[in-house]
Amino acid sequence: MAANKSVEQELLITRVFDAPRESVFEAWTEAERLSQWWGPQGYELEVKKLELYPGGLFLGSQRSPEGHVMWGKFVYKEIVAPEKLVFVQSFSDEDGNTIRAPFSGTWPLEVINYLILTENGGKTTLTLRGGPYQASEEELATYESMRPHIQQGLVGTFDQLDAYLART
Which of 8, 45, 65, 83 is most exposed, with minimal Cβ within 10 Å? Predict the structure, then answer.
């Protein structure tokens, strides 16, 4: 977390999936699987690159039903298969250069995510926490103002992960 970030600004989501931890981890870390569920409902994800090692890069584009394309990336900080992923998420251009979010000039350039997976009785509990990384006060305020939308979007994305895991 950024030094200027308080615990109250941290986003925290917990979700239980009826799938083994290895399957949930693979859904996050294999390009073919990730492309089946990541992102807003109705969007199509194309994975350009997925390098699963510390310092490695996920780079992909999301196409809306109307044809609008946005690029994004994860830079992996820590990987402990099948229980933990730490990555910094950003909007990017198609070459992976970090850019400002297309919807806000004050959205944080980087958001750090800590993904923890635990298994009990064949079900996996996913805990995602994180928030702005190395952000200015203005970026922190923008993130905080959008928190309900972020949570709603992640719930929808995790609904898609749940449906994907049920199909596989």
Answer: 8
DSSP letters for 65-130: TT--EEEEEEEEEEEETTTEEEEEEEEE-TT--EE--TT-TTS-S-EEEEEEEEEETTEEEEEEEE
Q: How crowded is the C-beta side of 2, counted as CA atoms within 13 Å?
A: 20
The pLDDT, as a whole number, for residue 75 is 98
Domains of the chain, with CATH numbers? 7-167 (3.30.530.20)
Of all residues in the chain, what percent carry a pLDDT higher than 70?
A: 95
Could you give the 3-state DSSP secondary structure of residue 28? helix
Integer-rounded Cα radius of gyration of the chain: 15
How many other C-beta atoms can be found within 10 angstroms of the C-beta atom of residue 92?
Answer: 20
